[in-house]
Amino acid sequence: MAASSQPDYTPPSSTVMRERQNEPYALRLLIAQRYLYSRAKRWLALRWFGMLVIGLAAPVVSVIWPSLAVVVGAVAGLWLFLGQTLLMYAQSSNVTRAAAVQEQFDFYVYGMPSSIERSTTPTIEEICALAGPDDKLENIAVKEKLMDWYPINADDSGISAVAISQRANAVYTDRLLRATAIAWSIVTAVWVLILVGVSIGVGLSLATFLVGVFLPVLPAFLDIVRYVAGVWKAARGRRDLARSIEGRLRRVEDRIEGGDLLVWQDSLYDLRKTTPLVPDLLYKLRRAVNERSMKAAASQLGQQARRSGQ
User: Fold this and answer.
1) How far from 232 is each of 45, 147, 186, CA to CA, in Å?
2) What number of other Cβ atoms are within 10 A of residue 107's Cβ?
3) So what's the pLDDT on residue 306?
4) Residues 224-253, buried b or exposed e (16+ Cβ, 10 A)?
5) DSSP string of 163-230?
6) Which of 135, 188, 257, 268 is deepest in the core (most CB within 10 A)?
7) Are the C-beta atoms of 266 and 100 separated by less than 8 Å?
8) Full-model pTM
9) Is 293 exposed, middle or buried (0-12, 13-18, 19+ CB in 10 A)?
10) Contact residues for 292 (Cβ-Cβ < 8 A; gap 6+)
11) Residues 6+ apart with CB under 8 A from 112
12) Alpha helices per DSSP H over 23-114
């Protein structure tokens, strides 16, 4: 799987990488990418507010209170338009910038050559402004739980440490995405039941429900279905990458080379810039369990890699 077109790459020792990820330069990048992702999530929350509260509720309000139909329809149409244009652009712009910053963090920690200059990477000044004063970096990192970002074991070789960290990143996000897809599927099902219940409660006929409520909410509902489907697709992409790395770590006859790590790193970047966002609440609720599992798996894979001579 090693790519000959990739530049030569030999990772530093795992001890060096463990220290690098907690250095001020690395923490500055982590804090900046966390801020950019949080800002993207605020734009997403605004989009979802318009989609769920305005886009989905507007037809119901129009049927129950016909006198408000024109005003409510105009507001819903305008909001859905803004959600698919300006708000979507603001969200995706912050995501791609965050992905570029996170890639810079990985390059620094792993000692990887930067073969491509990402046009979406913020300037040094922008990163510094996002991260805040240098003398507060460590305090912010501790508060945000950004220290020891990757589960790097000093006993692992540099090659194994990078591969295990890349896999950990892919699996961690995969677990979050799957939890997000399940949560949104449940929310959507509950919302449909509420919509049907309200329609029955106000005495709407089947024809009125279909024409006045169900069909008008389909465009907004389609966005929800697209989002959930995109989350599942992104989760599968992460899981496929994680399994590929894990398989190479376990195989004695197929040693991992520096070029493999570069290929996997490119794959991670492509996934990061297109992966749907996970709500902060769900991230915080799942964090303790996910981090415990990630560290346990990293320790197990490290032992297996050492036994196989990786």
Assistant:
1) 19, 29, 14
2) 15
3) 80
4) beebbeebbebbebbbebbebbbebbeeee
5) HHHHHHHHHHHHHHHHHHHHHHHHHHHHHHHHHHHHHHHTT--HHHIIIIIIHHHHHHHHHHHHHHHH
6) 268
7) no
8) 0.82
9) middle
10) none
11) 9, 11, 106, 261, 262, 265
12) 24-49, 57-64, 69-84, 86-110
d(CA 219, CA 286) in angstroms, rounded, equals 31
Please list the ranges in the chain whose pLDDT falls under 70.
1-7, 50-77, 115, 202, 204, 208-217, 219-220, 309-310
Handedness of CA 62, 68, 70, 72 (dihedral sign): negative
Residue with token string 């490119």: 266
Would you say 267 and 168 are in contact if contact means Cβ atoms under 8 Å apart? no
End-to-end CA gap in the chain: 15
Give the residue carrying structure tokens 């959507």.
188
Which run of H or E residues covers position 298? Answer: helix 280-307
Task: Answer whether 274's CB lies under 8 Å from 137's CB.
Answer: no
Neighbour-count burial of 144, counting CB atoms closer than 10 A to its CB (0-12 exposed, 13-18 middle, 19+ buried): middle
Q: Phi then psi for 27, rounded to 5 degrees?
A: -65, -35
Asked whether 60 and 198 are in contact (CB, 8 A), the reply is: yes
- From CA 257, how far away is CA 197, in angstroms rounded? 59
Give which of 149, 174, 109, 163 is closest to 304, Cα–Cα: 163
| CA distances, 195 to each of 59, 189, 221, 289 (Å) | 11, 10, 12, 34
pLDDT digits (tens, 9 = 90+) for 184-217: 888 878 877 877 777 777 676 777 666 666 666 6
pLDDT on residue 115: 67
Residue 8: how many CB atoms within 10 A of its CB? 9
